[in-house]
Amino acid sequence: MQQGSTKPTQKTIAQIMGLAVTTVSRALKGDPKIAEATRQQVAKVAEEIGYVPDRAAQRLRTGKTRVIGLMLSPHDEIFGFGNSMIEGLTRSLEGSGYHLIITPTFSGGDDIAPIKYVVRNGLADGLVLTRTRNFDERVRYLLEKKFPFVSHGRTDFSQKHSFIDFNNEDFAFQAANRLADLGCNRLSMILPQEGFTFHQHLRYGFMRAVRQAGLDYVIPDTVTLDSNLEAIRSWAVELLSDRKEGDVFGFICPGETSYLALNAGLRNIGLKRGVDYQAVVKTNSAILEQISPTLDRVYEDIENAGLLMGKTLLSILDGSSEGVSQIVQEPIFSFQNV
Fold first, then answer.
1. Which sign does the torsion angle of CA 14, 15, 17, 19 carry?
2. CATH second-level architecture of 168-299?
3. Which of 141, 299, 303, 315 could bridge to 88 as Cys pair (CB 3.0-4.6 Å)?
4. pLDDT at residue 287, rounded to an integer
């Protein structure tokens, strides 16, 4: 430790290892021109002595915060959405020198104000957006400011930007076909609020399937994926309480919580899945597999989406990206034998 200093520095590491300070600095940054063995040894010594980069000095020197901001919109649609997203982003940043900060943005609030605050005050080098809308004002603002970002979900802007999305249209189309194969003649799906991009993708896929199969359908206008569980449960009970003889309902649930709500309500009035109605559910966890192993499920890998978004943003920040990156994850279907 340097005399009179209580905080280890790169010079401290250099003195311990007999290296030049510039070599230590490049090794800590993961410079591939520094031998892998040297990088590992430097990292080991840095950890042992408790070295922490002086981010204030780094920012003055480079103009970079070495921070990625996640604008997280908490919601109950998919179990563990936030945790899975954070896990994937954290994995993507390992060894990069970047750290993740999380700013929650709640439905009904001003979701552009936190974005402007981060950009105007230089609190992050890049942002990750969730719950993207067709004409998302956050995206518009960041494009205008030329501020690096990647979104979870697409927009309808003509100007291209980087995103990671899920093929909700194919999910809805394949799920509807599955329910038709199970003998359902009336299908229903609870959609997200209008304005979210995946609302239109889900609707496109659903309508394409029911029209091709000539099936009757119901899209509720009183509940959405953001409705509380009691509202969804009451809607499902009312819908099936008035069903006609010969109707076999099939539900497409774009998240676990909507399924659990409607299933609880229908069970309370004596109806049983697989007998009185069918369901296909989009999941992000193994919870429903444990609760109901015979349930038809479609997996959306949120953790991998976070990983891909982190890697995409890092490539934008280090200048290695080759233009705009637009990735659409495909559904993983797990349909049970009948």
1. positive
2. 3-Layer(aba) Sandwich (3.40)
3. 303
4. 84
